[in-house]
Amino acid sequence: EPERCVLLLGEGNFSFAASLCGAAGTRVVATCYESEEEVSVRGWAAENIRRLREGGAEVLFSVDCAKLSDYFLPEKREFDCIYFNFPHCGRKAGVVKNRELLAHFFHSSAEVLAEEGEVHVALCNGQGGTPADQPQREWHNSWQIVAVAAGAGFILSNVHPFKAETFHGYKCTGYRSQDKSFCVEGALNHIFTRSTPLPHFKPMSCEIELGSQKVSFQVPQVLVDKINRGFLELNSNHPVQTIKEKLTAELRQAFPLQDTNHCLSLLHQGHLSGVCPSNVFWIMLSPEETPSTEGHVDLCRARDKNGQVSAQEGCCVSKQCYLRPSLLPYAQAIIQRGAFLPGTLHVLSGPVFRRCLVSPYSMPIFHELVFGCAVNRGAENSCIQMLVNSIQSSIHSLQQTVSSSKLNINLQEATSFEVSELNEFAAFEYHFSKIQYFICMETDSSSSCEKHFCVGTIRTAHDELVNSEMVAVFASVNLDLLAMLICGISDWRMLWTPDSRFLCQFPRGQLKLFKSFSLYPPSYVHDVSFWVPDGEELDEVAFHTIARQVSGETVVSIQLIDTFQQSETRRKSLCYRLTFQSCDRALSCRQAAEMQLLFRREINQRLRVTLR
């Protein structure tokens, strides 16, 4: 194995460095801020320095942790691990000064750390400001270490107690810049790693078959990094593919199965019944329809004031297209045209797209698994029960291999719910396809605020078949939501992370309880107030979609916190609170502030609100 190179900063008496020296396969570079003359008079320092040098370690003095690249040649700037134990500006420096020290240190470390290296920072109890501190200090009175590190592109990937007794001969020193020890009881070691950078999206076009023609369209910006990811390909080890395989394998034992995923267009055309137009991603054929090649036409989006396609702009409604919000119409088409064998279960799967409000479980894109079959009239209830039993069995089997927390699965009639009680996925399905049953899951997981979830739907249709003696049965399952509940993933965005540390937790065909590689990510709160145009209501879905777009999906919460109406003019003012937080990448205070400014500009231009 290649030699592991370790850099130690801010050594007081070099006792920590001496405890690491001599470890097999490790090269130690130990440094301190003071000169050798100043350090050598400290207790045991001279002896530790001698031991280090005899053991082959490199010892450097007068090293400023904020300028590390000045001390190492480019070919020696690939440290696998950087340790900085109990950093402090000295004397009675307050939290602000020490935050500045950490900020300079992290930026400097980024220049000399290997790509997959780690930065270890030990802090006294309470200083870090994370929930790992017991008791936890108020944020403003802490060193805010996760936010400071995020400014240099680092995320907190692990935190554990700093156990001084495990380092033979280690003696802490430096209390108020003196040769005195200090209390390290309850101290924590914070381990940081590099984050993948925040996305900077470029316009993206997608070419597909629509009917008999090839068409291209501009992908909505919020979907640019999510379209064509191939999570459901045969060689994929993504959890949604594993769950799909397990579900279909279980159903294959009860039904003859036929996979019909080929030629499922991303776009739909024509009438969309039962769905609010603001909940779909509209795309419209260019009025010119000028072919760029034989059999090829261009698609473009014509936006109204809310950034959505308007049918009143002189465009033929038949030219309107939208990204498919469901695979159910494809299953219906198969059954309607009689291209089936009675009792055969047709299986369709793929990503679907829905504009929705921001929340941890509201997904603008997710993978849907749809089953459709035709059975003799009177046999539909037994067919439904077989479907539900198979789904229950496969989910229980998956869940038992992952966690001890319990998932209860049951079938509930749609009429037993008020629409306001449904989650966003269920509410859309309810309006879209006349649902009769919801497949519901109840979790006892402490990591989730929500406990009840609709993960699927079932409906029957008596009037969609040529043969009046047959009944169509359709079932739909949200694979992404299932993956989150089974694997303990608390935020849908994690399913789409480009960070390899997500997929490496799921070997091919296996599910495990997910362990986050970004702990206690910092959050930043910004408020925005504005006047709504006279006589108009704010399109909240458009408002949330703009927030998704400008933030690269780092807005995790949007709350209406105040409304006001002038008595004389009847003008209406709204105040919203946006919380910015990334579940997988470093997000700095400055970046969140820039996103907020961009959001203000965009809502002013696209929603015609007047900012206050």
TrEMBL record:
Q: Entry's PANTHER family?
A: FERREDOXIN-FOLD ANTICODON-BINDING DOMAIN-CONTAINING PROTEIN 1, PHENYLALANYL-TRNA SYNTHETASE
Listed A to Z, the keywords are: Aminoacyl-tRNA synthetase, ATP-binding, Ligase, Mitochondrion, Nucleotide-binding, Protein biosynthesis, Transit peptide
Domain FDX-ACB residue range list: 519-612
Q: For this chain's UniProt record, which GO biological process terms are given? A: rRNA base methylation; translation
- This chain belongs to the protein called phenylalanine--tRNA ligase
Under which EC number(s) is this enzyme classified? 6.1.1.20
The entry sums up its family as follows: Belongs to the class-II aminoacyl-tRNA synthetase family.
Q: Which reaction does it catalyse?
A: tRNA(Phe) + L-phenylalanine + ATP = L-phenylalanyl-tRNA(Phe) + AMP + diphosphate + H(+)
Q: Cellular location of this protein? A: Mitochondrion matrix
UniProt source species:
Ceyx cyanopectus (Indigo-banded kingfisher)
Q: Name one GO cellular component term.
A: mitochondrial matrix
Q: Does the keyword Transit peptide apply?
A: yes
Name of the top EC class for this enzyme: ligase
Q: What is the top-level taxon of the source organism?
A: Eukaryota
Give the classification, highest ranks: Eukaryota, Metazoa, Chordata, Craniata, Vertebrata
